[in-house]
Amino acid sequence: MSKIIAVMANDVEDIEYTSPAKALTDAGNEVTLVGANANEKLTGKHGTEFTTDKGIDDIKADDYDALLIPGGFSPDNLRSDDRFVELAKKFMLTDKAVFSICHGPQLLMQTGLVKGRTLTSYETVQTDLYYAGGIVKDEPVVIDRHLITSRTPDDLDAFNKAIVNELA
Questions:
Q1: The pTM is what?
Q2: Catalytic residue among 59, 84, 91, 103
């Protein structure tokens, strides 16, 4: 069993958290929802209400095997908080598994570590990734070592399969 941190703020793309989290837990993994504070109520873009399991200050990257960054406007909110940027940076620098979909790579760009990495994202973020030095592909799933990225909710089946296989 692997332990995964899912980071979230308000306005997450609901299904980009719920679908991967279900696929990961159905495969026997443990997903911990982390926000700015423990037991924080967050609302997705489509009205789903979420309650965080832990706050960012309550966790250590070393205790987890993977990082999940769902999209929507959540990653843009998270990247203004240095604690989430540092968490993502730790996962990237230690080459641990990072799963990022849609606008999720906005948080990864903030780490300064996408240069030379091959990845994808929602179409409007792809240009930003390119200017940050990423090698951008417009494909449902892009795998670069332990970094797995995807574009939209339409790609969730392929994304979920790839992230579950990464932890198998």
A1: 0.97
A2: 103
